[in-house]
């Protein structure tokens, strides 16, 4: 309820005010009251377990006012209440520390993933420029060796070997960049990217057939998260654009589904002007998101 924290605070203050008045002939009540006073004075714990501390104060007050024949039972209850208040305060304080550490860990993971992705992009660009320079040098060597067919063959063989090794390194760098971009996207959104394949269009992600209900054009909640994760991946991979290709039994339904996917991409932070959508009729229903490469 809205007023419960105010009620608990007022009750604790009232109990704390009467604590010094504990009867001198009841040392157990005084001892337990001192433990609660120490708990209230501890700045690392006194904001937790307000309800448990109120119950403990009430139990100690009951012990102080109990007749001698009722004191054993009242003492047991009061000691249990005080111990519960102390334990609850420590537990809640530790839980808050654990929650803070979890948040800091997640932030560090995202930041590390972003740094790795930036390094991978820089390495990919360096290798691309190096490959371009080597291609230009290869062209110059070919022009110089036109007068000597035998020498030309030797140069071509050497260049093919160098180009092959350079291409392998460039592909490895691009694969690492894609892997880091995938990890960053999944960390940021909490979703999972579907399996992907590469073709002449780029990197193709296929949504599950259950992403849309039968004859429906709206995405389910799980599919919404998947599309937002693709948007985060496209951003992390510095893609120049995303294409949405949808096939359904009806062309109008296919177009509406493509537009629903586009809206989910935009909701995930991808610019609407960099999304192309196509919907067409076909027997095999499918929804593909193509993340284009540079």
Q: Would you give an account of this structure?
A:
The model is unreliable at about 1-10 and about 15-25 (pLDDT under 50). Helices cover about 65% and strands about 10% of the residues. It is of the alpha+beta class and about 290 residues long. The relative contact order is 0.07. It has three domains: about 5-100, no CATH class; about 125-190; about 195-290, OmpA-like domain (60s Ribosomal Protein L30, Chain: A, 2-Layer Sandwich). Helix 1 runs parallel beside helix 3 (about 50-65). Helix 7 links the parallel strand 3 and strand 4.
Question: How would the global form be characterised?
Answer: elongated
Could you give the distance between the termini?
56 Å
Could you list the spans in which at least 5 consecutive residues all have pLDDT below 50?
Answer: 1-12, 14-23
| Helix-residue proportion | 55-70%
Total E-strand runs: 5
Number of helices: 7
**Would you list the SSEs in sequence order as H and E?**
HHHHHEEHEHEE
Mind describing the biggest β-sheet? 5 strands, mixed
Q: How many domains, as an integer?
A: 3
Structural class: alpha+beta
| Strands ordered across the widest β-sheet | 1-2-5-3-4
| Rg from Cα | 34 Å
Query: Averaging pLDDT over every residue, what do you get?
Result: 84
Q: Report the β-strand fraction as a percent range.
A: 5-15%
Brief summary:
With 294 residues, the chain is α+β, with helices and mostly antiparallel strands.
Summary tags:
single chain, 294 residues, alpha+beta, 60s Ribosomal Protein L30, Chain: A, 3 domains, five-stranded mixed sheet, 7 helices, 5 strands, 10% strand, elongated, disordered N terminus
């Amino acid at each position: 309820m809205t007023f419960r924290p105010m009620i608990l605070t007022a009750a604790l203050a009232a109990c704390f005010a009467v604590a010094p008045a504990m009867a001198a002939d009841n040392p157990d009540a005084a001892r337990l009251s001192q433990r609660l006073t120490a708990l209230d004075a501890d700045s690392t714990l006194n904001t937790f377990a307000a309800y448990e501390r109120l119950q403990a104060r009430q139990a100690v007050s009951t012990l102080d006012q109990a007749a001698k024949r009722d004191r054993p039972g009242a003492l047991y209850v009061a000691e249990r209440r005080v111990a519960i208040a102390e334990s609850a305060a420590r537990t809640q304080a530790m839980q808050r520390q654990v929650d803070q550490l979890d948040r800091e860990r997640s932030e560090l993971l995202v930041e590390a993933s972003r740094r790795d992705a930036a390094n991978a992009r820089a390495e990919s660009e360096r290798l691309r420029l190096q490959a371009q320079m080597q291609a230009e040098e290869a062209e110059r060597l070919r022009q110089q060796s036109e007068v000597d067919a035998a020498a030309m063959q030797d140069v071509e063989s050497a260049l093919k070997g160098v180009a092959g090794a350079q291409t392998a390194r460039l592909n490895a760098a691009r694969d690492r960049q894609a892997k880091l971009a995938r990890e960053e996207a999944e960390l940021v959104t909490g979703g999972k990217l579907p399996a992907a394949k590469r073709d002449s269009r780029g990197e193709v992600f296929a949504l599950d057939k259950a992403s849309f209900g039968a004859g429906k054009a709206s995405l389910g909640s799980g599919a919404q998260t998947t599309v937002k994760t693709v948007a985060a991946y496209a951003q992390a991979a510095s893609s120049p654009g995303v294409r949405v290709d949808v096939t359904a039994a009806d062309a109008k339904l296919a177009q509406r589904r493509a537009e629903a996917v586009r809206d989910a991409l935009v909701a995930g932070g991808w610019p609407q002007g960099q999304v192309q959508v196509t919907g067409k009729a076909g027997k095999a229903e499918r929804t593909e998101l193509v993340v284009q490469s540079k």
